[in-house]
Amino acid sequence: MPKIYGAVTINAERCKGCELCVIACPTKVLQLQPKEVNNKGYHYATVVNAEACIGCASCATVCPDACIEVYKVIEK
Amino acid sequence: MKQEDIICPENRVYAKPRLLNDNTMHYCPGCSHGVVHRIIAEILDEEGYADNTVGVAPVGCAVFAYKYIDVDWVEAAHGRAPALATAIKRLNPDRLVFTYQGDGDLAAIGTGETIHAANRAENITIIFINNGIYGMTGGQMAPTTLEGMKTATTPYGRRIDLNGYPLNISELLAKLDGTCYVTRQSVDTPAAVKKAKKAIAQAFANSMAGRGTSVVEILGTCASGWKMSPHDANLWMREHMGEHYQLGDLKNEVKQ
Q1: Does residue B23 lie in a domain region?
Q2: CB contact B242 to A (< 8 Å)
Q3: What is the DSSP letter of B234?
Q4: H or E element: which one contains B34?
Q5: Are the beta carbons of A64 and B14 separated by less than 8 Å?
Q6: How many domains does chain B have?
Q7: 3-state secondary structure of B102
Q8: Best of B11, B28, B68 to disrupt the A interface by mutation (most A CBs within 10 Å)?
Q9: How near does any CA of chain A get to the CA of B21, in Å?
Q10: What is the dihedral of CA B157, B158, B160, B164, to 10 degrees?
């Protein structure tokens, strides 16, 4: 069975911390930064469980500020 | 496999659309406008309309739409976007002309322009963001506000005996002979966003093929105006707005 590897990168300065990506992620990869804030003062989204990512792009699909890039590798 | 091996340009499956500018949007966190702007930018790029499009921006929260999507724009007076789009499309019939309007713009002050543009079967696309509130001015009641919904001007909820009924403008437009495609979508889940994108792409194709007016209503949220978190606003929208404003195609006369 092919194994799927995914990864996301987040543009922290563009993020407004709305948490929609955290809720949309089916494998709980993302979380809001609990203490750190970006220059606008928002608790930005961050990757906490990188290995679980399947590259489905659900987070990027619901992101209102287009700050998420998604990468995906299918290993046969 | 290591993260560094996965993160490289050839494995990229999703990135910020090329037509979306780097300007930070002024919308509140979790605003539906951001998602709709993004899917419009994606469609314009994917379908090759980028150099051939004129958008008409409204008055309302989306007044700065021209700062975020990198195509030609015209800013209309409050509610007059369909009238302006009519002129642009008639003078440049080979261009894709669309209006982007909120419910205060389209369903209140611009009702006349909207209905008459649709009735004349102008070959334009109307993208209508309905969040049931005047978001920009501080959350006052709009014609589309639901019965019992609390707003700044109806603090005890909208009363039918005092304020009238919520206006189903898309159902009205679907009754007109000039419209070819009227649909109502939402952007609260990944699946809904994909459906909305498909609907907008269909509407743009109708405009270019000269089939008449296409209307895509998108049920949006206004987390700040509704005084909820973005996720709660999405849930509230599904539960309450979906009841009065049924999702799906209201009219589709396009021959497949």
Answers
A1: no
A2: no
A3: H
A4: helix B32-46
A5: no
A6: 1
A7: strand
A8: B11
A9: 10
A10: 170
In a domain, B11, yes or no: no
Cβ distance A73 to B32 less than 8 Å, yes or no, reads no
User: Residue B174 is which amino acid?
Assistant: A
For residue A64, the chain B residues in CB contact (below 8 A) are 25, 27, 29-35, 38
What is the domain range of residue B153?
Answer: 30-252
Q: What is the pLDDT along chain B (256 residues), one digit of tens a residue?
A: 788 888 988 899 999 999 999 988 999 999 999 999 999 999 999 999 999 999 999 999 999 999 999 999 999 999 999 999 999 999 999 999 999 999 999 999 999 999 999 999 999 999 999 999 999 999 999 999 999 999 999 999 999 999 999 999 999 999 999 999 999 999 999 999 999 999 999 999 999 999 999 999 999 999 999 999 999 999 999 999 988 999 999 999 876 5
pTM of this structure: 0.94
Identify all chain A residues contacting B5, using CB atoms and an 8 Å cutoff. 73
CATH number for B84: 3.40.50.970
> Which fold is adopted by the domain A3-75?
Alpha-Beta Plaits (3.30.70)
Compute the distance between CA of residue B125 and CA of residue B208 in angstroms, rounded to an integer: 10
The answer as to whether B4 is a domain residue is no
